[in-house]
Amino acid sequence: MSGHYSTLLRSTVASLLPDAEVWITDWHNARDIPVSEGKFDVEDYTQYLVDFMKHLGPDTHVIAVCQPAPLALAATALLAEDAPEAQPLTLTLIGGPIDPDAAPTEVTDFGRRVTMGQLEHLAIQRVGLKYAGVGRTVYPGLLQLAGFISMNMDRHAQAFSDKITAAARGEDSEHDAHNRFYDEYLSVMDMTAEFYLSTVERIFKNREIARNVFEVNGRTVDIGKITDVAVKIVEGDKDDISAPGQCLAALDLLTGLPESLKAQHLEPGAGHYGIFAGSSWRNNIRPLVFRFMDTHRDRKAKAGGKPAVSLAASNG
């Protein structure tokens, strides 16, 4: 969960469908969830991933794109200790903040500068009367969108300038590349305040996953307990959101995993979006990910068939 709906992964899913049965985790807009349904924070998210993987079964290949990467790693570690028979065959982590301090970006710099009190004051609002979640505290989608755009203001300004010029020349269309991209990019949801704040505090500020001290329901999650799940790291060398090194830090945490079950790929010239969509994904990364899955699918003498692929959430 990063504030975008999982539709941002539409092209990723479309590219996987010919070769896999695809299951996607997605979340409802927090403004539509009554307060009576309770909280939803990083621990709840992690437990949901555990439940999803148990439901899908051990012949699953899990792909986590950006924000879910650290929590998908933690969920796999919980399974390794509590229900090893339900562990996925492989776990592919794409551009996720396993250790935000491994490589600084604007995102990590912002996290260091702002206190939790300031963040709660500036970013958190209550849902209004016309929604089912009235009274719930949320990090609103529009505020998130303002943050996304401000990180690359020049690029977005140029994109809309080019769009206006194309329209003036009669060269644009409703379904051109510009509209297809922004239809997804501008599709944001409110997320619960507790999820947003706990993500900032525990994943970015306190680096609980990076330090292997993350807790779920009062219990410490030990990443070193993962011993039989092949893990692949994918990063883009131009990623300005989860810079190279942040996701790669997962391999150092996997102290109980043989080197033969670890893999990594750094995609030249790819930014954050490019490592799961576009030509870099289609031509280079996707084939590598499927080859990784195929290599490890028979390790447990599993019967043949098409692998199930669970995308463990949306882009960050």
Task: Give the spatial strand order of the biggest sheet.
Answer: 1-11-2-3-9-10
CATH topology description:
Rossmann fold
Order of helices and strands: HEHEHEHHEEHHHEHEEEHEHE
Strand percentage lies at 5-15%
Number of strands: 11
Radius of gyration using CA atoms only: 20 Å
Shape: globular
Uncertain runs are none
CATH architecture designation: 3-Layer(aba) Sandwich
**Main beta sheet, described?**
6 strands, parallel
**What is the first-to-last residue Cα distance?**
7 Å
Mean pLDDT: 89
The secondary-structure class comes to alpha/beta
**What is the domain total for the residues?**
1
Number of helices: 11
What would your notes on this structure say?
The chain is an alpha/beta fold and 316 residues long. The protein has a single domain (6-118, 191-311), classed as Rossmann fold (3-Layer(aba) Sandwich), CATH 3.40.50. The longest helix has 19 residues, at 278-296. Helix 2 packs across helix 3 (68-82). 41% of the residues are buried. The protein has helices at residues 10-16, 42-56, 68-82, 106-113, 116-123, 141-151, 153-168, 177-185, 193-205, 249-253, 278-296, and strands at 21-24, 60-65, 90-94, 125-126, 137-139, 191-192, 215-216, 219-220, 230-236, 262-267, 308-311.
